[in-house]
Amino acid sequence: MCKIAIIGAGPAGCMAACNLDKRFEITLFDKNSPLKTLLPTGGGKCNLAHAEYDFKELVKSYPRGEKFLYSVFSQFCTAETLNFFEKIGIKTYTRNDNRIFPTSNNSQDVRKKILDQLHHCKFQKEEVISIIEHTNGFELQTNKATYLFDYIIIATGGKSNYSFIESLGHTIISPKPALVALKTQPCHKILQGVSVKNCKITAENHKVYGDILFTNDGLTGPAIYELSSINAQKELPYEIIIDFINDDNFDLQNEFNLNPHKNLGNLLNKYLPKSLINTLVRTDLEQKCCTIRTNTKVLVNSILRDFKLTVTGTKKDGETVTCGGVTLDEINSKSMTSKKINNLLFCGEVTNVDGLCGGYNLQYCWSSGYIAAQTINKTCKFM
Ligand SMILES: Cc1cc2nc3c(=O)[nH]c(=O)nc-3n(C[C@H](O)[C@H](O)[C@H](O)COP(=O)(O)OP(=O)(O)OC[C@H]3O[C@@H](n4cnc5c(N)ncnc54)[C@H](O)[C@@H]3O)c2cc1C
């Protein structure tokens, strides 16, 4: 009997377990309850995939891993994911923004249906501390006992302790938070809770578009999450420029000409929340547009279109994913096997792959977990 250990019973590890041949002896190790990390996904609704069915397009939504993912998603992509869920009794629907959810809108259901597939597996609620490679297998040590296995799949996620992976000879790219709120200087705490729709944010040569929300120490919102992901490996601090208007046809002078008797505050309120104008535009907001002097016009325009902040950090423990992890140069993308050690495989966020918001990160877990399982199904011989 082929003995397989899966370390980490998150989405990636459980997907691997679901797809391994049931005749194997499979043990899942997790220091927590299985699939606990699936519960908060999509705000509890579980955004389990993204409706992009062309793998060459799908890979573009991963700031890290694009080349590696060509091979992964060419084997198991969105359609295969939906088939898998359909087979285990999870029906899905696609929202207007192309995010795919279970029709129940409940991650608990998804968790239950996946765990229903795993009755043949053994669960050990233990923390894996070390793995030692022997000539004919692996010795796996946990906080409670020592075990022997033929194959090991490491699926410990992005917040794992990488030391036992490093001691196997693998290189770890230092993990950094991604898809996370940003701390800024200055932070405009007084604007906490104020949101602005459809801004353009520039950081060096990257541009992102979307909604932002002021927090007590910086900014959050979809555009900020995307920016945090693209710049996850960027050295801090760095400058960002916000264009609150984000409309190439907008001309402030033209607005003043069209509304000569309106006061400045009321005019700007057409575009931005009053609290934001009152806080950021430090000039007389009662003055009529026809009386505004050139230097005030320049100041107002720069606040609306060229608002500079310095990013000084990320919200502590606020990350949705981490970038970094096992370097992709050391993993075979066709099989998810280690290039350094036979019969050792990786899947999910423990590797240096991370995607944007929208179901991309779980998609990678399903795809890489499936491939790891198929690799063992093909290579492990029954006695
Ligand atoms: C709040 C939130 C919302 C999210 N929403 C979405 C979403 O809607 N869509 C989406 O695509 N992605 C979402 N994500 C990201 C997604 O949840 C992760 O990408 C995914 O969970 C990664 O799965 P994984 O199996 O690789 O790792 P994890 O889910 O991190 O699972 C790893 C498991 O390994 C265990 N483990 C680690 N080290 C050890 C050890 N030494 N011994 C034993 N066990 C160990 C951990 O306890 C854990 O259970 C969200 C993330 C967060 C935090």
Describe this structure as you would to a colleague.
- It is a single chain.
- The protein has twelve helices and 21 strands.
- The chain is an alpha+beta fold.
- The chain folds into two domains: 232 residues, FAD/NAD(P)-binding domain; 133 residues, no CATH class.
- Strands 12-15-14-13-16-17 form a six-stranded antiparallel barrel. It has a five-stranded parallel sheet with strand order 6-2-1-10-21, with helices on one face.
- Helix 1 packs parallel to helix 12 and helix 3 packs across helix 12.
- The protein is elongated.
- Cα distance, first to last residue? 6 Å
The total strand number stands at 21
CATH class of the largest domain: Alpha Beta
By secondary-structure content and strand pairing, the structural class works out as: alpha+beta
Rounded mean pLDDT is 96
The CATH homologous superfamily of the largest domain corresponds to FAD/NAD(P)-binding domain
Q: Order of strands across the biggest sheet?
A: 12-15-14-13-16-17
Rg from alpha-carbon coordinates: 25 Å
Share of residues in strands: 25-35%
Label the CATH architecture of the largest domain.
3-Layer(bba) Sandwich
Number of helices: 12
Contiguous uncertain segments of 5+ residues: none
Strand count, sense and barrel status of the largest sheet are: 6 strands, antiparallel, barrel
Shape descriptor reads: elongated
Q: What percent of residues adopt helix (DSSP H or I)?
A: 25-40%
Which small-molecule ligands are present, each listed once?
flavin-adenine dinucleotide
Q: Indicate the CATH topology of the largest domain.
A: FAD/NAD(P)-binding domain
Count of structural domains: 2
